[in-house]
Amino acid sequence: MYALPQKRERSLIWLLALVQFTLIMDFMVMMPLGPQIMPAFDISPSRFAAAVSAYSWCSGLSALLAATYIDRFDRRKLLLAAYLLFAVSNVGCACATSYPLLLASRAFAGLTGGVLGAGVMAIVADIVPFERRGSATGIIMTGFSMAAIAGVPAGVMLGAYFHWSAPFWLLGVLTVTIAIVTSRILPSLDEHLKNAQPTLAQTLPALTRLLTDARHLRAFALTFVVMLGHMLVIPFISPMLVANHGIAPSRISWLYMAGGAATFFTSRAIGRLADRIGHRAVFRIFGVLALPLVLAMTHLPDLPFSIMVPGFALFMIISSGRIVPMQAILTMVPDAQHRGAFLSANGAVQSLGTGCGAWLGGVMLSTDTAGHLVGYGINGWVSVVLAALALVWVGYIRGGSTPSAPAAGPKAPSPVPELAGEV
Q: How far apart are CA 346 and CA 256, in angstroms?
């Protein structure tokens, strides 16, 4: 544990929240930019979905592999190096002149993003005392809300009024700026290098055992199914509104701003409700409420834009209302000593489900001669089936049993070598 002055610690936590903000904005802004990106590269919805998925797949793989090497480097150097490479990936995306270059830049952004996500949480665990770690994590998680409320709407506006590449130029500038400020506040974090690190021969079998535990597999399956169904719908809302309903791309930003602002206030209330009446109960309540809303979104009739804005906000509230209790349920699955590694692996599974959902959703869509998206209703029905399956499957998720107090006598060595992220 590193002892930093509390003021400096708090400044650093907010900088890490800005790092998280840029990561989330980079992923989320691609989806509403679909109406500009598809004609710019003359690609189908399925190829656009592959570009969205490339980030998720590579991010998940990168985050999973990070467990085998992240503790072998100074945290400061690793974070700054990965963050500058992330800036390069955004500049590469902005400069892409062909679809293969766009795909490669998105994949590279995912690779660096996965390492950054793991590195941010490792730094929080190193510099923040346990009694303040929950508050620090809450600040880090505001990166999602900031991206939804400000980042994505700003990116959509820039893409509509200038060029689809403008948001990625903005991200490149923001990333370099945040990296410079972080380098002046973040000290060298290398004390963990003094401890004996498990060899790769020890780490890989430990990772395999973590991934193949039956209790963990049931939890991973829930995460994968929920994200798969979610992403069959979400990435194509903006292209559908533009192509099928004639909504101007510049107005799409109002939808995302309303949705982000709504979830900023409701997510914490839903979390408190889940603590009071039960996480599974709240997951099922919002899961049932999501079913008709998904079908309404994917079979949307022509409506005034003034109705679409609050309707989209309601859709985002209900959709995120399933994720909040699900995350709480998942934290109870692993034993305490493996919780960090389990959650890192679950994050990789979440990215895998996100990527597969976006890719499969794109494959199921096509465009007619008038440029309308065709098949979005089928995406909705498949998403509903998967959401209904998750409502049943959550009943099979069981938590691990952890002793409340350590047994007397010498501590036996753990049968599983410690992985990165196990705190």
A: 27
Please list the residue range(s) of the chain that carry CATH number 1.20.1250.20: 1-192, 200-402
Instruction: Report the C-alpha gap between 107 and 113 in whole angstroms.
Output: 10
Q: Are strands 366-367 and 373-374 parallel, antiparallel or unpaired?
A: antiparallel
CB 419 within 8 A of CB 206: yes
> Which single residue is written with the structure tokens 């490669």?
104
Give the long-range contacts of residues 364-367, CB within 8 A, separation 24 or more.
364/232, 365/45, 365/46, 365/49, 365/236, 366/44, 366/45, 367/44, 367/45, 367/243
CB 260 within 8 A of CB 149: yes
Q: What is the dihedral of CA 379, 268, 218, 230, to 10 degrees?
A: 10
Taking only the tens place, the pLDDT of each residue in 161-220 is 788 888 899 888 989 998 888 888 877 766 656 666 666 666 677 777 777 888 888 888
Share of the chain above pLDDT 90, in %: 7
What's the predicted TM-score (pTM) here?
Answer: 0.72
* Per-residue tokens: 334: 């692993």
> Which three-class secondary structure state does DSSP give residue 367?
strand
Cα distances (angstroms) measured from residue 389 to each of 135, 163, 225, 273: 34, 41, 8, 23
Beta bridge partners of 373: 367
Distance CA 201, CA 204 (A): 6
Architecture of domain 1-192: Up-down Bundle (1.20)
| pLDDT tens-place string over residues 69-115 | 666 777 788 888 889 999 999 999 888 888 899 889 998 988 888 88
Beta bridge partners of 367: 373
Considering only residues 140 and 316, tell me which one the structure prediction assigns the higher pLDDT: 316
Return the CATH number of 200-402, one of 1.10.760.10, 1.20.1250.20, 3.10.129.10, 1.10.1740.10.
1.20.1250.20
Q: Is residue 164 within 8 Å of residue 34, measured between CB atoms?
A: no
**CA nearest to 261, candidates 144, 98, 113, 387:** 144
